[in-house]
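Rotation project, supervised by the postdoc (A.L.). Task for the rotation student: set up a whole-complex structure prediction and record inputs and outputs verbatim in this book. Inputs entered:
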Amino acid sequence: MQFEVIAKCHTTRARVSRMKLAHGVTSLPTFMPVATQAAIKGMKILEEAGGAHQFQGWKHNLLTDSGGFQLVSLNKFTKITEEGALFASPFDGAPTMLTAKESISIQHTIGADIIMQLDDVVSSLTVGPRVAEAMWRTIRWLDRCIETHEKSGKHDVQNLFAIVQGGLDHELRDQCLQEMINRKDRVAGYAIGGLSGGEEKDVFWRIIKQCADKLPEDRPRYSMGIGFAEDLLVCVALGVDMADCVFPTRTARFGVALTFNGPLNLRLAKHASDMGPIDETCPCPTCSDGYSRAFLHHNITIETAAAHAVTQHNLVFQARMMGQARNAIIQGTFPDYLKSFFRNYFGDQGYPEWCINALRSVGVDLLESDPSAKTQTGSGAKWERVDTR
Amino acid sequence: MMSTLSFSLLQSDLAQFAPRRGLLSIRRLDGSPNVDVNTPGFITATTRGLVPHLSRDHVRSTSSIRWTHIAFESFLDRVPPIPLLQSGPHSLHKFLGFRPNQHILSLSLRDPSDQRIMPPNGKDHVSAYCMSGVRKVTPQMWKDFTTACTPDIIVALSDTSLSDTNYSQKRLTKSVERSTAWLAHLLQSDAKSTSDPSSPRCRNILVNMAGGDEPRARASFSENLIEMLQGVEFEQVNPLRTLDEGVSGYIFELLPLRNDIRRDAPPAREEAAISSVIPLLKASLGPLPITKPRIAHSTSSPHEILQLIRDVGIDIFDIHWAQRAADIGIALDFSFPVPETHRQSENNDSQRQPLLDSTGRRDLGHNLFDVKYGNDHSSLASYLDEQSSDSATQHPTCPCAACSPHSPASHITHSSVDQTYLDPTTSTAPQHSYSRAYIHHLLHTHEMSSHSLLAMHNIAVMDAFFSGIRQLLETDLKNKESKFLEEVERFCNVYDDKMSMFRLAKEDWSTVELERGKGRLTREKEKEKEKEKEKEREKEKSATTTA
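Outputs recorded:
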């Protein structure tokens, strides 16, 4: 991997960088769409096919997760031992052990450009000694992952990322960060894990800030499971380079189109005779073709073709939002971009207080020009419901 | 008037029901290029205004999608129906995302593939179906809708629908009368439109052949069409001398027709054979000129299509069944004339061809839900494989986006630093075909893209099928031969016309659909074991009986 920071925001911690991987260059900060269901029944098929790039006809960069999070979130019967994660195989039901070594060699077979260490994930709401145990175990597993990866001879084409754990405990996070930074020469990048599990947003951003502040300047920083627009921009301002989430694609299938004025629920009757596109200015195939909200309303959640149309739009929305952030950082206008984005997105229903707090911590005051603007407590996640307007 | 339809036949001295080779063409009056459909050819079916599973870019890149048929009824749940709100020329094209220079759009009130039993039509209305219930549509409403939407082709209202009650002779007579009157109403020029001659009116009208399963009633409907009009009736449609002069082609809806046959001839539970349909179509065509296009909706197999071309001279077919095969995980794999590699009468495990069943007939494709495709890394279609070639190699010659995928011609960039990073060599390099194993995987994980890829593939297979038919008809015409008849015979002998694979695929589809969620793969595995045990038991049984 070649990683190079090419511009920095003069106010916030945001930065633009260039990450060169085996399948091309990606500009950061970026949002990575998630392909679910890539979980493969047995590695044999992928081996025969020559890796996931080949199997799915994808020519660009690819990142795979280790399976740690998937085992915890998808399977309540998973048992974590020092050796690895013991679970019932989704393939044949047999007890199967996913070790650090195994996870890395599976990811080698898949062939993604970025691979993740196996981590011991606990829900972000967990308290007590289990959190520390999981954090220290994640560090030990990182060492095994590094060892397997370095021995494989694939570390010049595939890049291993470490995952910082430690729950919502700042002290544990600090310890984890220190241990992982000590291994900097043997990892290509860092992820911040163990968040987005229902924790308070005011706690969430503080953990992100703590990690992003300490992580080395010359490594990409990846915030796992972040996909809401406001979360992404706050993370970018705090110094995060990459994020992934199923949100934009999943929400599309449920009929929600993302826009710079907030999400639109296309199932609502108010869109039924609206002949305009989701967003006049959007270059996505759906909007640029003049696909009307009315026709989307007619078919969304009924025909897969409508789900395809909104999915295409939502992915372009995420990419635009991040692309505009890159431009603003390069041009030195990122604080203004944040202000205008939040005004358009939340102006009518009120700025989420946690966003105001988070951005103040990096020198941007969303309420600067309008101190009396409406604010709201709680997560602030925006939805278009039947009773709005 | 936005466009005119023309139809010409290659053969000059044609028998009334002989196979025909022709060209249907929509000429736009705004000077844009003609959209042509060579016949025998096909109509792409839609649901709720969409080609099922395909995004707009997929529809456009599937060049064989030319004539697309739209059913209006799904839009009836709002008043006014939303397509009417679209402004500008070619408003229906624009609303639904089709391109006037690439796609012909025809519009009927009802979906010709809808199997629903409906309340009977009335003296002045047709019962149509939308999500919020049944709607009554009068001939005047239909005229207003179609005038406002400007499709290329309008299907006149007719009193033919699925019902489960027996027709009386009187009812049949009434149905013929209504269908005739409703066509006449559509052909009448409105006071409104005559006062404004510039108002765009589509004059390309197709008519359903009414008369149910009674040959005399069918013939009498056709006679109504060609009867010289007198008095008031003539005044109303002037300058037309007969109704038929205002009709561009004839439609046969096989679904209601088969329903009539089945209802009147119990206890036949199975779908009425195409052989019992053919005389009824001939009864309709008997009195009519042979120069107009003949269209059949809702055939259920390529065998039927071939027989209707051979025995009735039908020109155009919808391919609803082939498109819907994509829903249940089927990749079609057959061709006309039957390719050499499909003629072999033995199953060979190392080969890519569809399986032979117990009677020695080959499946029409592959049920990709089947576990045997889990490790099959070859491309979908074997019908294009050369006989001598190695069976394991790729054959990306099918032009569909699953077999010959291509990268988009341009990228959307979102920031000033993106453009310079695009590597032109990786973006334009040709891609490999998607494999059967990959689509098998997508099907078992409920990914929507499986159906998109299969839908495009199946449309391409049907396009190649019709193109094979046309080529042979041309060769016959040139050489004054009738190879076509022989090849139809051969096709029917080689490929399974019972479509047993479709039943199996449907079962697999519903199993996977029902069993979504945790532990599904375990359950599948157990079922596999159970099946194997079952097989062994059967083997033992047959061993003991033969002993």
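Student's summary: Residues 3-39+72-318 of chain B form a domain with the TIM Barrel fold (CATH 3.20.20.105).
Supervisor addendum: Chain B touches chain A through 59 residues (CB under 8 Å).
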